[in-house]
Structure formats: structure tokens, C-alpha cells
Amino acid sequence: MTSPANPDLTRRLNAALAHVQDPELRRPITDLGMVADATAYDDGTAAVDVLLTIAGCPLRNTIVDDVTRAATAVDGIDSVDVTLDVMTPEQRKALKDQLTSRTVPFTQPNSLTRIIGVASGKGGVGKSSLTVNLACSMAAEGLRVGIVDADVHGFSVPSLMGITQAPTRVDEMILPPVAHGVKVISIGMFVEGNQPVVWRGPMLHRALEQFLTDVHFGDLDVLLLDLPPGTGDIAISVSQLLPESGLLVVTTPQSAAAEVAERAGAVASTTGQKVVGVVENMSWLELPDGSRMEPFGSGGGALLAGRLSEGLDADVPLLGSVPMEPRLREGGDAGTPLVVSDPESAAAQEIAAIARRLTHTPRGLAGMPLNVTPS
């Protein structure tokens, strides 16, 4: 015989479920219409029916575990039976309409997301590694962070973040995988093995546009774009699709590298973007005796910041100098960024300081239309 339902216990059960987030959408499952029914009974048992967005939801076990943990944390509930079902096409459409639009959400007047494109003049300066470590450092500080791997031909962000799963699709909507608290999308998630992407300008633009319109990032504090080296098609597309984005320029200490990187930053004079700063990577190597060796020379970051400040007639600061560290490379190979695996290391500490300098100004309403009419 089934024990009678307990209204007060049921109310507290539903309140607890409101704190369970969908692991991909990062929204409460109650807000998303994923809880079809939740009832608690006098004998201390409970039953929760959860609707998945798709039958093959890759994180279904995570949802079951999170629901079970939240339900059994309610005083008076000793066990819970979680039943999984799948949304109907109508329910999926309602969810999609609730979450998405065919516009770039980051360009809407009410968007407070800070957008930063991480650029370099040439490859091999550690731009992608810096991007993922900055993102993870910001996420560790409690910010909501996303990465768009815009380097379509040379994508590397999924492996650097340890992401092997494909994004979940809900009809045309794409849910980005989450790693180390960061939402990530990359063309590398859609190709088989290590196949090259052989695309020209219009296709590159369309891919970036789809990442920004069809991928549901939700409300982000910071969106980082790992840009391809140089000043090609993607750099132009970013300026068109995200005109309010800023540029963070990465160089090595070598003066020749700084000269090349200057071109990547100087593109802002044409696109109208702001260069938010310069980062000098691979600045030095600390030897066992505590001394420093500078394999690539010194001063390139300061030289680049000075040239960009002069050329753009704006203050372009040198935000930091990141030392060479074998563990930085090891973390990239293992899919665990250094700021996660060894946050106390010298390189991780410097990256964390750069992340704070990039985000120290709170998101605000300055310059945004408030649609308020004085009376």
C-alpha cells in the first residue's frame, strides 16, 4: 500500500529541486520544465519524474545524482526514486523558444557580457594555452565564463580543456560542454579524429556566426575568443559580429615577435575595437638555483604595449609577463590547465593576476539604454 502524500514535505522537496541545475544549460531544472512531477510521502520516500531534453543525454547520470542528493538532503526524506523520461517535441520547442533567438545575444542592448578576443601576430606564442588558463582562473573566482575556439583551422581548446564529449543538440540549439566551470565550443567537437578543416572565408564567417547564435551559453560574465594568428577572415568577422569586443594581444619577449604582434593589435584602428592590453608569454625560465634564463630575450611585451599605445592613441597596458614552466605544457597535454592543477605555481599566479586585471571593473550599465522616460 502506497503511503499518503505529504504536502509540506512535497513543498520542501520542490524547493530543494529548484537548486538543481541542468549540467549543460546551467539553469535550475524546475525553471526549464524538466521536473514533470515531484512528490514526497509520509513514510520518508519520494518520487521525482525528470524530463531529459533528448533521449541520449550524455549527462543523465549527473542529473540523477544531483536530484538524489538534493532530495535526500530534505529533512524527512530518506530515499528517492528518480524516473527519467524525454521531452515531447512540443516541450522541446517551448524550451528552445525560452532560451534562444536567432540573433547574437552578446550584441543585445541588455547584454553585460565582457567579450575579449585573444589575438597574436603569429602561432606558437602560447595564445590558446593562455586563453584556457585565463578562462579557468576567472571561473575559479566565481565568474560565468565561456570560450569560443575561433581558430577553426588550428583548433586546440578541447584537448587543452580535456573535453572529449560532443555538444548536445536540442533541435537547432547546441549546448556547449562544460569543463572546469567553463562552457566551451569548438569546430574540433564536430570533426572526426584529427581531420583538417579546409574552409575559406565565407564558411569561416558562417561557422563563427553559428557559434554565436545557435550555441546556448546563457548569461555570461566573460566570453573569451581564441582567435587564429594574424589579421585574416576571422578577425574581420569578429569585428562585424561582436563590434564591442576587445582584443588581448599575446607576444613573446623577442622584439621580432612583438613587431608581428603589433599588426594583430593595430587591426583595432580599422575595426573600431579596443585593445585591452598586452600579455608577454614565455618571459623567462627559472633555473634550479633560482636564477632566471631568458631564452627569447626580454622587453618585447613592453615594446609592443608602447607601440600600440602610440599607434592607437590610447593606453594599452602590459598586463603581465608569464614565465615558461614545464607544468604549463604538461597541463595542456593532460587536459587540465595549470591554474587548476597547480594554482600556486609562478605561471598560474601570474595568469590569475592578469585575469583579475581584465575583470576588475564590474559589469555596469554605463552607456546602455535603460528605456526610462522621465515624468
TrEMBL record:
<dbReference type="InterPro" id="IPR002744">
    <property type="entry name" value="MIP18-like"/>
</dbReference>
<dbReference type="Pfam" id="PF10609">
    <property type="entry name" value="ParA"/>
</dbReference>
<dbReference type="Pfam" id="PF01883">
    <property type="entry name" value="FeS_assembly_P"/>
</dbReference>
<dbReference type="InterPro" id="IPR019591">
    <property type="entry name" value="Mrp/NBP35_ATP-bd"/>
</dbReference>
<keyword id="KW-0378">Hydrolase</keyword>
<comment type="similarity">
    <text>Belongs to the Mrp/NBP35 ATP-binding proteins family.</text>
</comment>
<feature type="domain" description="MIP18 family-like">
    <location>
        <begin position="14"/>
        <end position="82"/>
    </location>
</feature>
<dbReference type="InterPro" id="IPR027417">
    <property type="entry name" value="P-loop_NTPase"/>
</dbReference>
<keyword id="KW-0479">Metal-binding</keyword>
<dbReference type="InterPro" id="IPR044304">
    <property type="entry name" value="NUBPL-like"/>
</dbReference>
<comment type="function">
    <text>Binds and transfers iron-sulfur (Fe-S) clusters to target apoproteins. Can hydrolyze ATP.</text>
</comment>
<feature type="binding site">
    <location>
        <begin position="121"/>
        <end position="128"/>
    </location>
    <ligand>
        <name>ATP</name>
    </ligand>
</feature>
<dbReference type="InterPro" id="IPR033756">
    <property type="entry name" value="YlxH/NBP35"/>
</dbReference>
<keyword id="KW-0411">Iron-sulfur</keyword>
<dbReference type="InterPro" id="IPR034904">
    <property type="entry name" value="FSCA_dom_sf"/>
</dbReference>
<protein>
    <recommendedName>
        <fullName>Iron-sulfur cluster carrier protein</fullName>
    </recommendedName>
</protein>
<keyword id="KW-0547">Nucleotide-binding</keyword>
<keyword id="KW-0067">ATP-binding</keyword>
<keyword id="KW-0408">Iron</keyword>
<comment type="subunit">
    <text>Homodimer.</text>
</comment>
